[in-house]
Design a protein that fits this description.
Blueprint (H helix, E strand, L loop, with lengths): L1 H30 L6 E16 L4 E18 L4 E11 L2 E2 L1 H12 L4 H8 L5 E18 L2 E17 L4 E2 L2 E2 L7 E13 L2 E10 L9 E12 L2
Antiparallel strand pairs: 1-2, 1-11, 2-3, 3-5, 4-5, 5-6, 6-9, 7-8, 9-10, 10-11
Helix pairs in contact: 2-3
Length: about 230
């Protein structure tokens, strides 16, 4: 009786896993665009960004931002697709000494007001928003699951600290390059037209006018493919 009951349990487990496997295959099969198709995907999500300055020799504390936009993907074959997008993305950072450094570079060293800003214990949040144009290759490892890498062209839209574009006649925008290039790479998974995307962006050209600087940004988005 015990052996019979154990056999039934084993059969039930096998059927359960067979059902899960079949359901997963069915979902995945319907999730991937076909070769030669052109699809559109609006997306929205959050970013988390840190930044470095070479002369500062440190990393600014990270801060959360928002991102939203639309991407179009053309499938070259069953495995490989090319994406072109337009997004509005926040590369926000949060650090007091970092902005004291910016202020010093603009006004010069030895300024008491600069020193006070640099020693201010309360972090200052920088809201930096860019229009970015990613061109990305998507390779589908299995149906629905893609790894991706490419290049992104970023154009500065707004730059603020604590909601202000200027502080003591110091224009925050002046410390940033108007454009920079970054390299995104990551992965996405698609379930019934919903696309969950995790992407890391590393700037490869300078972000600052007065020093060599780098953004390190991680983005999580969800989109719907039409």
């Amino acid at each position: 009786m015990i052996e019979l009951g154990t056999k039934k349990i084993r059969n039930m487990i096998k059927r359960f896993f067979a059902f899960v496997l079949a359901a997963t295959m069915a979902i995945s099969a319907s999730a991937q665009p076909e070769a030669g198709s052109l699809t559109w995907q609006p997306n929205v999500g959050i970013t988390y960004t840190t930044a470095t300055l070479d002369d500062y020799k440190g990393t600014a504390d990270g801060a959360v931002g928002l991102t939203a936009g639309v991407e179009a993907m053309y499938m070259l074959n069953e495995k490989l697709g090319i994406t072109l997008g337009l997004n509005y993305t926040g590369y926000n950072i949060n650090d007091d000494v970092f902005f004291g450094r910016y202020h010093s570079l603009f006004y010069g060293y030895g300024n008491s007001e600069v020193d006070e800003r640099a020693l201010d214990p309360s972090p200052e949040k920088a809201s930096n928003y860019y229009f970015n144009i990613p061109v990305i290759g998507n390779y589908y490892v299995i149906p629905g699951l893609a790894v991706k890498a490419g290049v992104t062209f970023n154009v500065l839209s707004t730059a603020k600290v604590r909601g202000k574009t200027e502080i003591d006649d110091f224009k925050i925008r002046d410390v940033y390059k108007s454009t920079f290039i970054s390299l995104p790479f990551g992965a996405s998974y698609e379930i019934k037209n919903f696309v969950f995307d995790a992407r890391y962006n590393l700037s490869v050209t300078d972000i600052c006018e007065y020093d060599e600087g780098t953004f390190h940004s991680f983005a999580l988005t969800v989109g719907y493919r039409f």
